[in-house]
Specification:
Layout lengths: L35 E9 L4 E8 L5 H6 L4 E6 L4 E5 L3 E6 L12 H4 L8 H15 L1 H6 L4 H27 L6
Antiparallel strand pairs: 1-2, 1-5, 2-3, 3-4
């Protein structure tokens, strides 16, 4: 019998296994991309109002999400529970600024929401996250009001200034801040 004949092979796993973890599904993604949380107020048919959050891809726009082919949207209510909303029942979706106590001082690290002297990668991640959440172009595409857009523009100027100051600080200390 030939060596390739199934009758002559020993029972057991093949010599080259395609899966490293047999308990994990074949098409499961190992890298999850973070979603950007957008606080919104939604008006439904019949006048009902909901406050909660929608989640967008990091470079996604609210208008694209509302106009894609899906018939339903996942929605997180203010109490943390999730529900699916039928797009056809939506009358309006309005992004709202969340009531957070935004740091008003001049410490660049605190503006970016990281501890003083944090590793550069942590600072860079915080900077990119804040840019994704506050960038005026992204909010403009979501058709927010002029006052919200003005606040976002001011926040972005403050975020960019903090990032520039931290980059200069790290460069002067000999750490490249690319």
């Amino acid at each position: 019998m030939a060596a390739g004949n199934p009758a002559t092979r020993a029972a057991g796993p093949p010599s080259a296994c395609l899966f490293t973890d047999p308990g994990r599904p074949m098409f499961e993604s190992t890298e999850k991309r973070p979603m950007v949380r957008i606080a919104v107020e939604i008006e439904l048919d019949g006048g009902r109002h909901l406050a909660g959050s929608l989640y967008l891809k990091p470079q996604g726009r609210l208008s694209d999400m509302l106009n894609d082919e899906r018939a339903f949207l996942p929605f997180e209510t203010a109490d943390g529970s999730f529900m699916m909303l039928k797009k056809a029942a939506l009358i309006s979706v309005t992004p709202v600024s969340e009531a957070t106590s935004e740091y008003q001082g001049n410490n660049a690290f605190q503006i970016l929401g990281v501890r003083d002297g944090a590793p550069l990668e942590e600072i860079k991640a915080a900077y990119h996250r804040l840019c994704a959440e506050n960038h005026p172009d992204r909010l403009n595409a979501a058709a927010v009001g002029r006052d919200t857009l003005d606040r976002a523009t001011a926040r972005m100027a403050r975020i960019n200034d903090a990032w520039t100051r931290i980059q200069k600080q790290y460069e002067s200390a000999g750490t490249a801040a690319a």
